[in-house]
């Protein structure tokens, strides 16, 4: 509801006059140039070649901006009205700098190409609504510049990021993804799946009460998730290790720890004891094999070795829980 009310306060593009169209084009080029420089700053340390791409894209936007300003001065004088894309209905929003700083490199490349496509459509529509011949020609030329042959992002990418460089940057991005998300998430999943086996199945066989067993599993899973999340976030700020944001790592670890335990706690919402227990055991089987798969897929651990370690360890913990519960 609030988004609809807010959108009504914006002006439709068709209501803009030619001076306002030029002002919108100028502010849009300024914004896009700053965004490309923000991309460059965010990527420069780890991806210097791609950073160079975005610097040249920002330089292109600066040239476009100057052409537009010259046209505005020629036709309407030095005072440029304040018209920005957020003032115009249906104009796509741009991400703020603090989101750009955390954007993966492939996402940054895709966003840049989407920005160019948006700019092309804008200049086509703007040129169609302009009567002045010189202004119409300028806007048409800018539309062609944004859409010429291939996108500017791709053309500059071929110059500064050839296949071998892009492959190296993609490997760096994948390594960062593993360090920030996969590694702490996998540790959490292993801890949540394995460490909660004993208390959950011990409670199940000791009480034969599915609801009480579920409560034990729920408390163990949530408690372990909170503990693992705070531990991961607090023990390493990521600056020296290069493992990335401690908040992201903490969330990945905490959430996966809780999910790992809840996987075999939720079946005990089934009121029939043996149905719930058999279902939980099946869930445990799939959890352990999922852990082995992730280790093989992202941590390059041989699958058979990962399966042996995880399944054997989980089976021993499960057996301990059952024996203790039956004692």
From TrEMBL:
Subcellular location per the Swiss-Prot or TrEMBL entry: Endomembrane system
Entry-linked NCBIfam families: FeExpMbfA (NF045676)
Gene3D superfamilies according to UniProt: 1.20.1260.10
Keyword Heme in record: no
Topology of this chain in the membrane: Multi-pass membrane protein
Keywords assigned by UniProt, alphabetized: Membrane, Transmembrane, Transmembrane helix
GO terms for MF: manganese ion transmembrane transporter activity; metal ion binding; oxidoreductase activity
Any single GO BP term: intracellular manganese ion homeostasis
SUPFAM superfamilies listed in its UniProt record: Ferritin-like (SSF47240)
Keyword Membrane in record: yes
Domain of life, source organism: Bacteria
Organism: Ensifer adhaerens
Lineage: Bacteria, Pseudomonadati, Pseudomonadota, Alphaproteobacteria, Hyphomicrobiales
Pfam families: Rubrerythrin, VIT1
GO CC terms in record: endomembrane system
Record's protein name: Membrane protein
Domain Rubrerythrin diiron-binding: 20-156
Signal sequence region: none
């Amino acid at each position: 509801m609030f988004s609809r009310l807010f959108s009504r306060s914006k002006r439709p593009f068709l209501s803009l006059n030619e001076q306002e169209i030029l002002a919108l084009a100028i502010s849009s080029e300024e914004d896009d140039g700053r965004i490309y420089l923000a991309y460059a700053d965010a990527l420069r340390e780890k991806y210097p070649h791609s950073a160079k791409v975005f610097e040249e894209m920002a330089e292109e936007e600066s040239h476009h901006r100057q052409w537009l300003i010259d046209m505005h001065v020629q036709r309407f004088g030095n005072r440029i009205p304040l018209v920005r894309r957020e003032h115009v209905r249906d104009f796509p929003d741009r991400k703020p700098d603090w989101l750009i700083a955390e954007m993966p490199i492939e996402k940054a490349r895709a966003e840049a190409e989407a920005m160019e496509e948006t700019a092309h459509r804008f200049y086509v529509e703007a040129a169609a609504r302009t009567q002045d011949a010189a202004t119409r020609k300028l806007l048409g030329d800018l539309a062609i510049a944004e859409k010429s042959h291939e996108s500017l992002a791709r053309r500059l990418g071929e110059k500064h990021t050839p296949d071998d460089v892009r492959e190296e940057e993609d490997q760096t991005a994948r390594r960062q993804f593993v360090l920030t998300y996969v590694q702490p998430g996998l540790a959490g999943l292993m801890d949540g799946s394995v460490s909660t086996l004993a208390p959950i199945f011990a409670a199940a066989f000791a009480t034969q009460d599915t609801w009480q067993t579920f409560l034990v599993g729920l408390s163990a899973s949530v408690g372990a998730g909170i503990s693992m999340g705070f531990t991961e976030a607090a023990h390493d700020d990521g600056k020296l290790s290069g493992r990335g944001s401690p908040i992201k790592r903490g969330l990945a670890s905490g959430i996966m720890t809780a999910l790992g335990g809840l996987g075999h706690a939720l079946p005990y919402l089934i009121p029939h004891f043996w149905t719930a227990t058999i279902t939980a055991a099946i869930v445990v089987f799939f959890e352990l094999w999922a852990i082995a798969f992730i280790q093989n897929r992202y941590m390059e651990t041989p699958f058979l070795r990962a399966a042996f370690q995880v399944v054997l360890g989980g089976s021993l913990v499960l057996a301990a829980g059952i024996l203790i519960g039956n004692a």
